[in-house]
Amino acid sequence: MLRFARLVSLCAGCFAGSFAVAQTNPIFMLNSLDATISVIDPVSWKEVKRMPTGKEPHHLYMTPDQKSLIVANALSDSLLFVDPKTAEVQRTVRNIVDPYQLRFSPDMKWFVTAANRLNHVDIYRWDGKDLALAKRVPTGKTPSHLWIDTASTTVYSTMQDSDELVAIDLPTQTLKWRSKTGPMPADVFGTPNDKFLLIGLTGSDGVEVYDVSGASPKLVQTIKTAKGAHSFRAVGDKRHVFVSNRVANTISKIDYNSMTVVDTLPGPSGPDDMDVSLDGRFIYLASRWAGKLSVIDTTTRQVVRQIKVGKSPHGVWTLDHAPRQ
């Protein structure tokens, strides 16, 4: 079992800036083309373990009780459950078809996966331990990312190759509506009041904002960020969200009250998924083309660390993270 030291503070001379809140649990990075997980010790800032997964692990998500980190293995049709504190494998759940992206509903009743290769969204009932498929919902081409509203009634999914956003009613598992978007919609983020959805356009240079408070969605604004707007991560203050711009190698900070970009940070080497430290100061970024975990200080706007991981790092997670809205 991995033993991670309980960190009280980091000396100011360790790197530019110091942690205001201690990072005590490991940081996990999925290496999609290696079929592995890199486990990073936040004290030594070294990869201390590399664990095998199924084929093409892309995204990961915590169980509602925070006892398991679920890794979705798209090409192996399986989910790997890992202890988020010790990095020990707990179990593997098989026959989960093409789980590219995954998400739990806030009420903990529903578990949803996007089958990126097979053009459908699967909705499972969750009893706290096991999954039971409720319905497979055909969608447009290449369902990419998911978002579920705070009421646990609607799941939204982007369609990367048919340039669409779809909404699915969770209680009945039926399609509510579909709407055209800009090119190559990727990640989707909902504001805490459930009124607006933000869609990252990887095939363009901005984020589309949809009002979804009515019976059908309404495009109300496009926020220009930079080329390849892709993945979102809330800052944790219920006002701001980061978006990685994969082509431009930057990260934009959006104020979703004013729907404006209020800051720009470096995002080296094909920035993809992110997590944010508990105090909100540091971004843990998958630098996909470099095969590295990049640590970015949001106060100095500097890349303060890079740790070599595996090929095509994608999903990143730590238990010591800022709130996700």
Walkthrough of the structure:
- The chain is an all-beta fold and 325 residues long.
- It has a single domain (27-318), classed as 7 Propeller (Methylamine Dehydrogenase, Chain H).
- It is built from no helices and 28 strands.
- The strands form seven sheets. A four-stranded antiparallel sheet has the order 3-2-1-28, with no helix packed on it. A four-stranded antiparallel sheet has the order 4-5-6-7, with no helix packed on it. A four-stranded antiparallel sheet has the order 8-9-10-11, with no helix packed on it.
- It starts with 26 loop residues before the first strand and ends in a 7-residue tail after the last strand.
Strand and helix map with partners:
Elements: E1 27-31, E2 36-41, E3 46-52, E4 57-62, E5 69-73, E6 78-82, E7 89-94, E8 101-104, E9 110-115, E10 120-126, E11 131-138, E12 143-148, E13 154-159, E14 164-169, E15 174-180, E16 185-190, E17 196-201, E18 206-211, E19 218-224, E20 229-234, E21 240-245, E22 250-255, E23 260-266, E24 271-276, E25 282-287, E26 292-297, E27 302-308, E28 313-318
Antiparallel strand pairs: 1-2, 1-28, 2-3, 4-5, 5-6, 6-7, 8-9, 9-10, 10-11, 12-13, 13-14, 14-15, 16-17, 17-18, 18-19, 20-21, 21-22, 22-23, 24-25, 25-26, 26-27
CATH class: Mainly Beta
Helix content: under 10%
Q: What oligomeric state do these chains adopt?
A: single chain
Q: Give the neighbour order of strands across the main sheet.
A: 3-2-1-28
Whole-number average pLDDT? 93
The helix-strand sequence is EEEEEEEEEEEEEEEEEEEEEEEEEEEE
Structural class: mainly beta
Strand content: over 45%
How many structural domains in the coordinates? 1
How many H/I helical runs? Answer: 0
Shape, per Cα inertia axes: globular
